[in-house]
Structures are given as structure tokens and as C-alpha cells.
Amino acid sequence: MKIAVLPGDGIGTEIVAEAVKVLDALNLPFKMESALVGGAAYDAHGHPLPPATLKLAKDSDAILFGAVGDWKYDKLDRPLRPEQAILGLRKELGLFANFRPAICYEQLVGASSLKPELIAGLDILIIRELTGDIYFGQPRGRRIATDGHFPGAEEAFDTMRYARPEIERIAHVAFQAARKRNKKVTSVDKANVLETFQFWKDVVTEVHTEYPDVELQHMYVDNAAMQLVKAPKAFDVVVTGNMFGDILSDEASMLTGSIGMLPSASLNSKGQGLYEPSHGSAPDIAGKGIANPLATILSAAMMLRFSLNQEASAQRIEAAVQKVLAQGLRTVDIYSEGTTKVSTREMGDAVVAAL
Amino acid sequence: MKIAVLPGDGIGTEIVAEAVKVLDALNLPFKMESALVGGAAYDAHGHPLPPATLKLAKDSDAILFGAVGDWKYDKLDRPLRPEQAILGLRKELGLFANFRPAICYEQLVGASSLKPELIAGLDILIIRELTGDIYFGQPRGRRIATDGHFPGAEEAFDTMRYARPEIERIAHVAFQAARKRNKKVTSVDKANVLETFQFWKDVVTEVHTEYPDVELQHMYVDNAAMQLVKAPKAFDVVVTGNMFGDILSDEASMLTGSIGMLPSASLNSKGQGLYEPSHGSAPDIAGKGIANPLATILSAAMMLRFSLNQEASAQRIEAAVQKVLAQGLRTVDIYSEGTTKVSTREMGDAVVAAL
Ligand SMILES: CC(C)[C@H](C(=O)O)[C@@H](O)C(=O)O
Ligand SMILES: CC(C)[C@H](C(=O)O)[C@@H](O)C(=O)O
Question: Taking every annotated instance into account, which residue ranges of this chain make up the domain Isopropylmalate dehydrogenase-like (chains A, B) (predicted)?
Fold first, then answer.
């Protein structure tokens, strides 16, 4: 078993180092191999996803990913920007199923923008389709408009599209995930406006006939953005497309108030997966040793569970994280009065000690 | 001056009746003429936007709109569904500039999901482009895929597109609105993924050179969905496209906890406008006389301000609404202990009395 370790930019290197420390402590029989990705890879090799990095990723059972991006790359042409690395990995490895849990840890309820009673005990799972939709749809580009409101004017365009098998497979993933949870799926669409999402709704409804034990609810994306604020605990599994999922999964993460705690997994049909924290590269605090490594450590736990078939070890990590929280250890992003402020490294060490 | 009154479906008729009552009480020199729209128009004439209704709307200086939609029309073909009426009016009248204020009324802070300190005093303005983007972009439809991940499979697609003049005019609207407020515009895009929104960002940046007194910030839509939850008061004017604006404006409304209070305006370049509450037709409470008419009454105030050049009367209405809130009158959606529960009609009467 091989894990590709891609720390990336900003706080990526610091937080991944702690996750690797935790994995090492488990003494499991797998190899880890590191490579540059994102801005770091651009600086060294002129491309955010160099061939060697892509090859390593493809040849591995799982990828432990940090984060990519820094303002200093903002002026580069789009294909060279750090975030192309993550889009490229998703596409090249076919990582179509993105799991984004939004969980509110008991000890961190106070960090949320929401009133405690609305958020305490939150445990929802957003499943975002990750290789289709307007993210990758062709054609796209700039041109002179020949129709529309301003024929003759310069315009830019993108294509939203979903094929039946793409919707079917993500719907199966969602219904199967719901079976292991509270048996409720909310499929988010915009069927009242978009052809793509009328089709989405139709296909999800068809797939649902194979899962009579799971409840299916359809919700428009604008309403979903509202209901997440109003009553987040009313959701169990949310399934949606790439673009709506990008927006709603970030909204849901932020509702918890502790995005520094939230892992994510992106899987393909072979069980290969990319595991990364839900937060970004935070260049403003990079190198200061204060970033929260727990989302990355919990991503490593998801990796053990989903791609490496090591459920027991996954649970050991998750229990250790619960323990350090119970001990009152906090990085600055989740610090509150009466708790103990620790550095990135101290947090990693504490998790290892708690294993 | 002529106002087209289009109550629509669900609670639409009840809430519009109260707004008309308030307008009548002002004794201003304009005519009001009513017509059916949405499901009500479909039932009577077989189409949600009958020619006579469209003609009335076009011939008027302003449209006072209630709400459209009811589950019972869900099975109709898309072109006949109630929401096509509102899309049709936007398109036919060229109502490209949608103003969606998200204001938290002092007396209603407790109704929000958010902690009081995050939401008290909130006053942001979301400006949503309303006639372009993937809402109206051609081509769209269903077909057999010839490329993509699953050539040969059935697929559905839509086209996101924006032409330069469409972006320019909404950017001007946003910068001019910001000048009358706190001089800060946040332009929301997804330039890291979409050609359309890289172009959006470029054009907004160009237009900004004409407004050196206004601060311009660019933000990705996923981040905007998060920042609205984390620190909504950090925004002043938010400008974005039709699709992202649909999601973010609803999210922002719900943050206030009192969507029953929020008006909206949709304007074209001639100053004609459609004015409607931010909430929907709420068929579940229709006919019960309990809906909150204040968002519609405040929409009538916006109408007086933007389309009918009656600023003083607009302010009279707004002051009257403040007064009834101060008197402790509440419809059920904003009711809390220690206040007085009133019906739709009683609330309208109270506003008239307070004028
Ligand atoms: C960096 C960006 C391209 C990416 C996305 O939009 O998918 C990010 O926001 C995410 O959600 O992983
Ligand atoms: C009813 C629907 C088509 C409409 C939209 O998506 O624009 C509504 O959600 C709105 O925001 O006015």
C-alpha cells in the first residue's frame, strides 16, 4: 500500500507533517512518498501539477493532500495557478465523489456563528459531485457574441452539463452513505431554471427506487442555502453537483465555526482517494506554527477508512482527537478562555500521545 | 403614473392587499391596475404570464408583485409553471438589476440563527444581475453526449454566459449604490474555475477605475458563502451574477432571521421596476390571514423611491413600519414572547395608522 503525500503551499507543509507523524505512530504496513504540488511545484518545476507528481498520485492507493494557493500566484495564467493542481488531480484520477462532513464538536460549539441550540450535535454529510458540471464542461472560453442580449459584444461562456451515468453513480454513493447514517438524502438542484438540474432531479429520483429504505427530499439550491442557516440539523446527507456543492459545503463548514477541524475525502470508482482538510492554504499564517493540524489528521483517518481498509486505526485517530479536545488543547483558531493554547506541532504530538 | 398590481399565488393576494391599502392611504396621483400572474393566471388562462398581464406590466411605471408558485403546479411542463412568470417578466422588461437588501431590524435580532453580536445592525445590499448568466443562456437542453466523460450517454446542459455590456451596467449600478452607502463593493465570482467569471472579474475591475472613491474587493463565491456566515457585517454592497446571486441573496436574507421583512426591487435601464418581497408564496399558510405583509409594504416603499420618484412617501412608509415594530406588533413569523401577535390585515391597518 502506498500513500502519496502532497503538502502543497502555505500551511500545507506544517499540517501535513503532523498528520504524517500520526500515521507513522500507527506503525502500519504502508509506504509514504512525498512530492511537490501547487505553487511549490510551480516554483520548482514551472507547473502546479508536474508529471512526476501526477504519476505518484496515480500509482498510490491514497493521497494525503495539504492545501494549495498563495496570493503571489494570482497573476499567473490560469493553467499555471496552484488550484489547477487540485482540479487536475480530480480529473486525472476521476475522483468524482467528494465527502465533506460538517460536524460540530461538543467542545467547540461556542466557536460557531450560530446559536448553540441550532448547531450543537450537528453531523451532516455533504456529498459533492467533483468531476463534472460547469467545472469541466466544454465548450468554454471567450468570443464575440452572435446572439443573446448583445450580439457583437465580447463575451465569456462556460457549459454546465451532466450525463446520466455521472448522476447515477453519485446518487448511489449518496444513498449508500445515507444507509449507514440517518437514511435521509436531500438532493439539491435548480430544476426550476436549469435543464441540467431538471435532469439531475429526474435521475436521482430514478436511482432512489433502488433504495426504498432511504428517504429522498428535493430542494432548490437557494432554499438549501437558507435552510442550512435556519435549521442545519434537519439535514442528514446532502447530495449535489460540483458548483452548488462548492458553495454549500463551504457554507456548511463555516456554520460549525471550526473549519479547522473538518476533513474531506474525494474518491474514484476504484477506491483511490484524495484526502485533504476542508480549509485552505492560509498563506497569512503560514510558517508561524499556529495552524490547526486536526482537519488534516482527521483526513488521514478518513484515508485509513475509505482507501486503506484500516477502520480500527481510523477510529484510533478519531478517538485521540476527541481526547486532546477533552484535554482542553486548542490551536489559536479554536481557542477560547479556559482552554490551553498549543502550536501546530504540540497539537500533533498530543494526538500521537493520545493514540 | 401607473402601477401594475400582480398578487400571484399563495399568500401573494393577502400581502399585496395590505401594500395596496398602504399606497391608497398616501393619496398619491397614480393608478393601480391588477392582473393575474403565476398559477392563478395558469388556472384562469392556461399560462402563467398571459399576454394581457405582460402588456399591463410593460405599460406600467412599476409592478407590485406578490409571489408565485404552489406544489400543485409541480407536475406541469416547465414553460407553464408559475415561476416562468417571474422569469418572463424579468426577461421581457429587461429587469437586469436586482436589489436585495439584507437588513436586521433592531427589534428582531432575536429571530436570527446567528448570535446577536454578529447580526445586530446588519445592513448589506446584494445586487444580483437578473437577466443574464445560466438562467437565460442558450443553448440548453437534452441530447446524447458526443464528448465528455460518457460519450453516447443521455445528458442535459445549460450555458453560462455574460457579455461585456451586461457586466458593465450591473457594475455601474453597484458602484453607484455603494457611493450612497459605505463605499465598498464586494464582487463575487468564481474566476479560478469559470471563464465567465474571470471575464466578470476583469470587467468589474475596469469599471472600477471610474469609481476611485469606492473600494472594490473580489471574493470567490464559496468564500462569500462562508464570510456571510462568519462576519456578515463586513459587507456593504455585494454584486454578483444571476446564479450566485440567487444563492447568496437567499442565504443573506435568512441570516437576518426575518425574511418576512425584506423587500426587493428589480430594475431596468428605463427606471421601470418590479417590486416584490424576498420570501415566496408560502402555500402552506395561504388563506389563513397570518402572513407578514411588511416585506411587501417595504417593497412598495422601494417602488415609490426607485420608480415613482416619491422619496418622501417611501420614507413615510419605512418610518411607519419602524413604528409598528416599536409598538410591539408582530405577525407569527416574527413573534416572540412579550410582543403582540397580529394578523396580516391588522398589521396592514397598523402601518396605515402609523403613516
Ligand atoms: C480551489 C478551487 C478550484 C476548489 C473548487 O472550487 O473546487 C476549492 O474551492 C474546493 O472546494 O476544493
Ligand atoms: C422562482 C425562481 C425562478 C427565482 C430565481 O431563481 O430567480 C427565485 O428563486 C428568485 O430568486 O426570485
Answer: 2-351
Q: Which amino acid, residue B199?
A: F
- Provide the chain B residues 265-324 that lie in CB contact (below 8 A) with chain A: none
Share of chain B above pLDDT 90, in %: 98
Angle among Cα A145, B163, A140 to the nearest 5 degrees reads 70
Task: For chain B, list the domains and their CATH numbers.
Answer: 1-101+261-355 (3.40.718.10), 113-256 (3.40.718.10)
User: What is the predicted pLDDT for the residue at B55?
Assistant: 98
- Which of A105, A104, A71 lies closest to A280 in space, CA to CA? A71
Let me know if A79 is exposed, middle or buried by CB neighbors in 10 A (0-12, 13-18, 19+). Answer: exposed
Peptide bond into A50 cis (omega under 30): no
Confidence of residue B108 (pLDDT cuts 50, 70, 90): very high
- Which position has the grid cell 501547487? A38
Set of cell numbers at residue A282:
492560509
Q: What is the mean pLDDT of chain A?
A: 97
Query: Radius of gyration of chain A from Cα atoms?
Result: 20
CA-based nearest distance A27→chain B, Å: 38
B124, B236 Cβ separation under 8 angstroms: yes
When pLDDT is averaged across residues A154-161 and rounded to a whole number, the result is: 98
Q: How much is the average pLDDT of B283-296?
A: 97
Side-chain-facing half-sphere of B310: CA atoms under 13 Å? 21
Give the number of C-alpha atoms closer than 13 A to the C-alpha of residue A213, restricted to the C-beta side: 9
pLDDT tens across A246-299, in order? 999 999 999 999 999 999 999 999 999 999 999 999 999 999 999 999 999 999
Contact list, B194 vs chain A (CB under 8 Å): 134, 140, 158
Ligand 2 centroid–CA B127 distance in Å is 14
Nearest CA to ligand 2 atom 7: B246
pLDDT at A148 (0 to 100): 87
Contacts of A190 in chain B (CB under 8 A): 243, 246
pLDDT in tens, B179-229: 999 999 999 999 999 999 999 999 999 999 999 999 999 999 999 999 999
How many CA atoms within 13 Å lie on the side-chain side of A18? Answer: 30
The answer to whether B189 is a known catalytic residue is: no
List CB contacts of A107: < 8 A, sequence separation 6 or more: A325, A326
Helix (H) / strand (E) element for A117: namely helix A116-119
Say if residues B9 and B1 touch (Cβ distance below 8 Å). no
Strands (E), A31-148: 31-34, 62-67, 97-103, 123-129, 141-144
What span, in angstroms and rounded, lies between the C-alpha atoms of B79 and B90?
A: 15
Q: Are B210 and B175 in contact (CB under 8 A)?
A: yes
Q: From A73, A172, A89, select the one nearest A130 (Cα to Cα).
A: A89
Question: In the 8-state DSSP scheme, what is residue B216?
Answer: E
**Residue A74 reports pLDDT greater than 90:** no
Could you tell me if B140 lies within 8 Å of chain A, comparing CB atoms? yes
Question: What's the pTM?
Answer: 0.97
Average pLDDT for residues B31-48, to the nearest whole number?
Answer: 97
Rounded alpha-carbon distances, angstroms, from residue B206 to A154, A158, B172: 14, 22, 11
